[in-house]
Amino acid sequence: MKITDELIIEKLLARDETAIDDIDRKYGDLCRCISGNILKNNSDTEECINSSYLSLWNAIPPTRPKSLKAYLCEVVRNTAFALFKSKNRIGQQQIYFTELAEILPAPENSESELDCKTLIGYINKFLASRKETDRKIFVMRYYYNLSVKDIGARLGVKEATVKTKLHRTREELRSFLRSKDYNV
Q1: Contact, 165 vs 155, CB < 8 A?
Q2: Structural class in CATH, domain 92-179
């Protein structure tokens, strides 16, 4: 029997514990990739995965995500960043965030959540207008936290090409946000 997202969600709604095994079989490698790229530690990666699966178990029900994969990736990513922060690690992630820090302002007050949603909408609109390769490179770098070398290997392009495309995409994003009167 093929494991579908709908079947997994139904199992979660029915509180069937085999749903966790199904999630791990279908998305375990992806989850380990996301958390591993953030945490850079096998033990912490497994801790993150276990915590993420528990968070998913506790969230469904009442939540019924439209995309289980996207929802799970977000849970894993957020859990990994929380774990990373709690362990006070300094690593490669700071470089990734520094690259975007020049473009994206830091939240300053309680209104920043609304501002953040607006910013996310603008970034999504911007990425939707990019070539597929440029969009993939941007997402691999800033969402999945892959190194330039890993991105190049996965896409079959030179590291220099990846660096150039990231630089150009960041500059185009800056211009796009300015055109929307977003304070950058």
Answers
A1: no
A2: mainly alpha
